[in-house]
Amino acid sequence: MKAAFWYGRKDIRVVETDEPTPKSTEVKIAVKWCGICGSDLHEYISGPILIPTSPHPLTGAKAPVIMGHEFSGEVVEVGSKVRKFAAGDRVTADTKYYCHTCYHCMRSDFELCENMAFMGLASGNGAFADYICVPEELVYDLPDQVTYEQGAMVEPLAIGIHAVRRGFFREGDTACVVGAGPIGLLTIQALNAAGARRIFAIEIADNRARLASKFGARIVDPRADPRREIFDLTDGVGVDLSFECVGKQQSLKTCLEVVKKGGTVVVSGIFEEHPSLDFTDLVVSEKKIMGSTDGDFPAGISLIATNRVNVDALITSRIELSNIIDAFKQLATSKDSVKILVHPNT
Questions:
Q1: What CA–CA distance (Å, rounded) separates 258 from 11?
Q2: What are the residue ranges spanned by the domains of the chain?
Q3: Does residue 318 carry a pLDDT above 70?
């Protein structure tokens, strides 16, 4: 089969590789669609960040690795111990492999696993390929009303939903999302579904700003004075929560500036460089910073199935695997695209 491997910074190659065979507890899936994620782009531009260059302690994987984790597909084969799935099932999957033996796993805090490996980055297998084998415990059924394209959007939506929950959001809260890329746009929709009273979005790219506005956010231009505008529109208080969805020093600074005293900043962005913080302001204002990396898949599937979010509007192009290198180059230099979905060549 063909698959897209990460070999190094700005070095992705589509090559022939062996078709995987499922282990006893794995499900083999024929990939239908796989989205290019922001973390994939970070690895392309500045990696390795999460891709191991020496054997990963859980999976043993190291570069080169098959990329891709935002995917949907059809089950074509199952291992001998698999009980929940059968050939023909329509599915998507979580992206995180857990060791089940570390301190956090033993407390059922799997998202904090000491040895976690991310699919398509540190797992050795990824979904920019014809087939992928995934542990049964990570696989989720897709309802008939959820298309395969929508199924490939479950993972980023699940990330947005989890970020909202990590911020201990309460119905009626106000929020600001910094960065209206795929995660930011889906976080906006998750906030709407949860009952946000008012949402602001800070975004410079016109097409992304238009989508954020379509989903109910008031657009704030980062080239002006976002803090002043948001404080003017919140009676001088600031928002209850802000969401960092970019992974940049300036966007984190903006999140801290627009959130109210005692408010919460939720960070979902992947940082290529280490940011600095004004800890004095953090202390005297008693603001909180929360990291967020996990995803709530059942909630994401449900919101799509019941039409409470619109993931189709984020899909700006669909390409075949053979064109994926050009897609990465495009995403690295332009914000015209929001979500590019990749289909295997076969």
A1: 38
A2: 2-153+311-343, 157-291
A3: yes
Assign domain 2-153+311-343 to a CATH class.
Answer: alpha beta
140 CA to centre of own chain: 17
Phi then psi dihedrals of residue 108, to 5 deg:
65, 20
Query: Tell me: the pLDDT tens digits for 91-105?
Result: 999 999 999 999 999
Reported as a pLDDT band with limits 50, 70 and 90, residue 274 is confident
Residue length, the chain?
346
pLDDT over threshold 70, residue 346? no
Map the chain to HEC letters.
CEEEEEEECCEEEEEECCCCCCCCCEEEEEEEEEECCHHHHHHHHHCCCCCCCCCCCCCCCCCCEECCCEEEEEEEEECCCCCCCCCCCEEEECCEECCCCCHHHHCCCHHHCCCCEECCCCCCCCCCECEEEEEHHHEEECCCCCCHHHHCCHHHHHHHHHHHHHCCCCCCCEEEEECCCHHHHHHHHHHHHHCCCEEEEECCCHHHHHHHHHCCCEEECCCCCHHHHHHHHCCCCCEEEEEECCCCHHHHHHHHHHEEEEEEEEECCCCCCCCCCCHHHHHHHCCEEEECCCCCHHHHHHHHHCCCCCCHHHEEEEEEHHHHHHHHHHHHHCCCCCEEEEECCC
Task: Please give the model's pTM, rounded to 2 decimal places.
Answer: 0.94
CATH 1.10.287.3510 at 157-291, yes or no: no
41-45, 73-77, 263-267, 268-272: which has the minimum mean pLDDT?
268-272
CA separation, residue 181 to residues 35, 134, 302, 319 (Å): 13, 27, 22, 19
Scanning the structure block, which residue is given the tokens 């004004």? 278
User: Is pLDDT above 60 for 124?
Assistant: yes
Place of tokens 């979005």: 201
> What is d(CA 156, CA 169) in angstroms, rounded to the nearest whole number?
19
Cα–Cα distance measured from residue 338 to residue 35, given in angstroms and rounded to the nearest whole number: 10
